[in-house]
Structure formats: C-alpha cells, structure tokens
Amino acid sequence: MNPVFERAMSRGMDRMMTDMHAAGHSGNPDIDFLSMMIPHHAGAVEMASLVLAHGRDPATRRLAEEIIASQMLEIEGMTRRLAALRRQSGSPDEFPALGGTRGP
User: Fold this and answer.
1) pLDDT tens digits for 50-67?
2) How far apart are CA 29 and CA 35, in angstroms?
3) Which of the residues 12, 16, 27, 102 has the least number of beta carbons within 10 Å of its own beta carbon?
4) CB-based contacts of 53: which residues, under 8 Å, 6+ apart?
5) Are 41 and 74 in contact (CB under 8 A)?
6) Tens digit of pLDDT for each residue in 4-32?
7) If pLDDT is split at 50, 70 and 90, which confidence band does 82 have?
C-alpha cells in the first residue's frame, strides 16, 4: 500500500472528472466530445506520470511512457480541432495528424 500514490491518484481522478464537466454542454456534439476528451486524456497523462514516480515494474513503466507520449499528441490534435470548430474554420474532413496512433 502506498498512501501517497493513492491520494495523488484520487485527486487526479477528481480533477479529471471536474475538468471534463467544466465546459458544460454547447449543443454541438463534436465540441462537447473534444471538450471532455482533452481533460480525460490529461488525466491519463497524470496517472501515467504518477506510476513513473511510484511504480517499479519495468513493463508498466514503459507502458506509462507510451501513454504519456501518445496522449500528449492526441491532446494537441484535439485542442487544434476544437479551436477550428469553435472558429468554424477548417475543412470538415481535416483531422490533425496523431503521429500514427490511429493504426493502419
């Protein structure tokens, strides 16, 4: 049992849930989805960072590193797309590149 890790994880989950619902609903499913997914992914980054600080299993630590790298790319792409939707600009087919995280 690691009480420091457990408290940090609980605080992070609480923050993520608060941040996910902070924007409210705009009536636009695309904007609402992105507005909630960005803090959701940020929560994953925080959780992965905590396991890097407290975890010892090499395979889990590698997975955490991969999660941080991929989620940061996705956060960047979602943030750009959200800004474009809010500006009502950009091609409807335009999707920010995610560095190959979407598969073949």
Assistant:
1) 999 999 999 999 999 999
2) 10
3) 27
4) 5
5) yes
6) 999 999 999 999 999 999 988 999 999 99
7) very high
Lookup result for tokens 């474009």:
84
Where helices occur in 23-98 by DSSP H, the ranges are 29-54, 58-87
Identify residue 75 by its one-letter amino acid code: I
CB 38 within 8 A of CB 72: no
For residue 61, report the phi and psi dihedrals to the nearest 5 degrees: -65, -40
HSE-up of residue 84 (Cα within 13 Å, Cβ side): 15
Contact 11, 43 (CB under 8 A): no
